[in-house]
Amino acid sequence: MRRVISIVLLLATLTEAKVITIIDNGVERKISIPTPPAGVNARMVQSESKSIIVAFKKSVNVDIEAFSAKYGLELDKKLSIGYYIFKNQSGLSDLELIATIQKENKNRLKTIRPNWGFNNRPR
Questions:
Q1: DSSP 8-state class, residue 122
Q2: pLDDT digit string (tens) for 5-55?
Q3: Rounded Cα distance, 111 and 83, in Å
Q4: Is residue 122 part of a domain?
Q5: Inside any domain, residue 120
Q6: What totals of helices (H) and strands (E) does the chain contain, helices first?
Q7: Beta strand pairing status for 17-24 and 27-34?
């Protein structure tokens, strides 16, 4: 019975929303991004200036300039806690870019997610 309910919920989520995977503090999380109804635009924090937040594991040395050049990013800020905020200068959306970076650098990443602020999600 649980399996049937899980499948129904998964199908309902997939038809109503786009599901992306982010890494947050070393834990993979799935985020559901609802698709807007016809004629309505989804509102996103940071919709004009696209940006992502990245943190690398402490045991890994990363050349930030090479990393940002490879993915079409521009370093906006380096936070004192080791997080980097990059502006997305590539032709990809934030979500597509995050998926690409995550696929190629999964062992080096501690955190990668869109910079939507605290508890702000598209509506």
A1: -
A2: 767 666 665 555 677 777 777 777 777 666 655 444 444 443 445 788 999
A3: 8
A4: no
A5: no
A6: 3, 6
A7: antiparallel
